[in-house]
User: What shape does this take?
Amino acid sequence: MDNIVNITVVDREGVEHQLEAPTDMNMNMMELCKSYELPVEGTCGGMAMCASCHLYVLSDHDILERNDDEEAMLDQAFFVKGNSRLGCQIPITSNLEGLKVQLAEVGA
Amino acid sequence: MIETDILIIGAGPVGLFTVFEAGLLKLRCHLVDALPQAGGQLTEIYPKKPIYDIPGFPEVLAGELIDNLMQQAAPFKPGFTLGERAESIEKTDDGKFILTTSRGTQHKAPVIAIAGGLGCFEPRKPPIANLADFEDKGIEYIVRDPNFYKGKKVIVSGGGDSALDWSIFLANNVAESVTLIHRSKSFRGHPDSVQKILDMSASGKISLFTEAEVVGVSGNGVLNSVKVQGLDGSEQELHTDHWLPLFGLSPKLGPLSEWGLNIDKNSIEVNTFDYSTNVPGVYAIGDINTYPGKLKLILCGFHEATLMVQSAFKRIYPDKNYVLKYTTVNGVNGF
Assistant: This one.
């Protein structure tokens, strides 16, 4: 289908969700997860200021590198790994076809 | 006992605008907020971010919007209980509520308006299993009184401004020793503070561990040591009197989830007629409420506050008639 990429999100229980993500809605991964009612808070609304959309990129996709705001927030977050990203800083674009991510644990 | 007409929980934009709208109806307001300053997440999280969807303001910084709302509310002389979390409410025989804060301050009012936004801001706690065993027994998430650390060995974790500023202050003024542990190689705090930390590390005034984090805590009743793990997998035990994990704040719904209100997905269900909750006399406005079609926008919160105070007026003065007056006609007559 035009303007749609298929993305797999593994939730915190290990269940895989197949999502159809529109590339023409100016959406990011945090918003996509919320629109499918996955347990992503997106507390700060997408300003890279809360890490409630922290996820791990499992597939080998060429996506934009972490920006400074995102690095700063991940410095303060927990359960951070090399493949950690904030969903709100990953725009849905056509090169994400087949992307697989896993939601990170939420701290206390 | 602090008495008022409308007790507002949350001093963010919607809580502050409620003061103005209530004031036009000659109702007095008092605000309670867990943060030490008014403004909620606008001042706590993003004071320098521009907002573009406030009617009449093509662009306004979050901090400026709060300053303006404070100025707009000022004629109605709101009271503030800041730095205290609203803990419990109980109903009195005369149909009012008594609200008690985390520090025991009591407030009495016939109407409670919960404008709590995302909830109250609480420290982010690192995921260490036995952390709670040492809370306030060597582990503190907030520095309340720096003199508490006089002559003590202190370990600080975090890379933001509060971790840097407290490390510098404690090392220069009171502590016997200060160790700063940060997960990354670089610091995100203010460049001046970062430079100071690097200088103090070079001169031996602060011990600095980067690319490392605290992964364990131990002690006998009180904190005695922390286990530090490097990104390379190396581990070491550091003896200390205190550990300050300063990883910023994140909002939690907190105690008001126990107040008998109908809650759906961390939000309080309201009737859109007047934003009343299932508990008569308790209203919820702004980001903390939910209803079909809800949008978490500041401007929607302003609208909700305006309608809510009309209903509050009728509750407080059931026999008085009220006619909507325009500020263009009557101006603003403060208290």
